[in-house]
Specification:
Elements: E1 16-21, H1 23-40, E2 47-52, H2 56-65, E3 71-79, H3 82-86, E4 90-94, E5 104-112, H4 116-126, E6 132-140, E7 153-157, E8 163-164, E9 180-183, H5 185-188
Parallel strand pairs: 2-3, 2-5, 5-6, 6-7
Antiparallel strand pairs: 1-9, 3-4, 8-9
Helix pairs in contact: 1-2
This protein binds inosinic acid and magnesium ion.
Inosinic acid binds next to strand 5, helix 4 and strand 8.
Length: 189
Amino acid sequence: MTRPLPEGYAWLSDEIQEVLFSAEMLQRRVAELGSAISIDYAGRNPLLVGVLKGVLPFMADLLRAITIHVEVDFIAVSSYTPEARERGIVRLVKDLEMPLAGRHVLFVEDVIDTGLTLSYLLRNLRARQPASLEVCALFDKPAHRLIGIPLKYKGFDLPDRFVVGYGLDYHERYRNLPFVALLRAQVLG
Ligand code: IMP
Ligand code: MG
């Protein structure tokens, strides 16, 4: 392993192949994103919108790295069928609580893969007539992109591999890891 498992996580060595981004690397980059957002949105009281549940740790850290007034809201989605998911069509199982009209909205995502889900959600949000609508993604997997997404803020590019940790799950596990890692092939099955 190029980057060792941090203290207290030796028990995961059978499941984790490699740590790609340490907690320190993530925190440093999130702080930079928060500074940039604080400068760009000064005086505009932005509304950060996240999709549950993967965005939770990133959103929590990003919010605390923003040094201007900011508000937050969440949506939750579920797929109708695997076919619908492949086309990016999702059902909102929890809608936003706040109206978007006239607001400066920053959509915050954990990872953009094909971009289909995000593209569908952005169309939905745009119809509510925000004053502006931009995207901040912690991870970008450009290799899989099927649809163009304008990314205003990006944390890191990811290789075309499945990663877990810092909100990203495999069958709901690993979201709690403070770092991001590759799973061993035998775990992925
Ligand atoms: P897409 O951009 O519509 O393909 O969907 C992106 C979503 O797929 C993300 O919000 C994640 O929930 C999930 N996803 C994509 N890549 C990964 C990964 O490497 N690990 C965990 N979840 C992922
Ligand atoms: Mg997600």
